[in-house]
Amino acid sequence: MQIPAKIDCHAHVPVNKATIATSARLHMGFIDLQGSAVSKFGSLGMSIHAPCIEISIAKSKQTLIDAKSSENISNIVENLVKSLKIQDNFTLVVHQTIPSHVGLGSGTQLALAVGTALNQLFDLELSIAQIATAAKRGARSGIGIAAFEQGGVLVDGGKTSNELPEIALRQAFPDNWRVLLIADSAYTGVHGEAELQAFQSLKPAQNSLSNMVFDHMMPALQRADLLAFGAYMADLQAYNGDYFAPVQGGRYASQDVAAVLRWLQDNGVACVGQSSWGPTGFAIIENQQLAKRLQHEAQLAFVRKTNISFTICRGKNTGASIQLG
Prior knowledge:
There is one protein chain. Helix content is 35%, strand content 24%. By secondary structure, it is α+β, with helices and mostly antiparallel strands. It folds into two domains: 2-172 and 316-324, 2-Layer Sandwich (Ribosomal Protein S5, domain 2); 178-313, 2-Layer Sandwich (Alpha-Beta Plaits). The strands form two sheets. Strands 1, 2, 3, 4, 5, 6, 7 and 12 form an eight-stranded mixed beta sheet that branches. Strand 9 and strand 10 (281-285) form a beta hairpin. It is globular and about 60 Å long.
């Protein structure tokens, strides 16, 4: 059975196996880095169709995790089993995964996929928010959680006290637009303890671009005005890049990705940026034909940079999918 997202975590269907498919997200920047008396860490991001995660969890006589799985998956499973008080055995198989620590939100998507599969398999009747809390996700941004649940382009209103960040605005990504991802295999983004220390070490920012995002950037997206959306993206990326420069060494984590983004801008691309801590960069392009041409030309221009690769993907306006059996 296929349960389309927005995910219904309360579908009472006796199952022996649950397969969850989800995909990466772009985190395009924080819009309130200094916080306020009410909230902090408001942010903008979106769900994309690739790369993907697909896992299956089935009831079994003993608990086994696919040998190809990373240590990260073992930690996620151990934490969820403990948090959700699961005593039954199961087998987990990872069919596809998103590269870790490259700015595509692999940790949240993987944790939510595992938690959602366990929720369905053992009929725990949990919401996505409850699964996210059990998985210890959403410490700063709600983009990854909302991307898993509903997809689209998302603005979260920031984190308040101990509550998960709530989505303040969601819009669909235009069907004809494409996202060109620029990956750097030679670089790993800031993560784990280093990320925690980074946020603790950075001084409060002096301003917020939340009004720009709500009043100008998202309306530009709604009318599919890529030129205006890209101009506002440039402001958002500059704001975040300068703020995080002391940690990542400049506006962009990877100088090779930065060079590609400059080349794309010189060749007429209106909207570019870095996702999260990088190194993955992105360019939003008007249509598939132009995206393929620019991808080909960029590959030729940077052919000697064997660490750099390019992938075209679409925006994803739906959440994860669940197949029960």
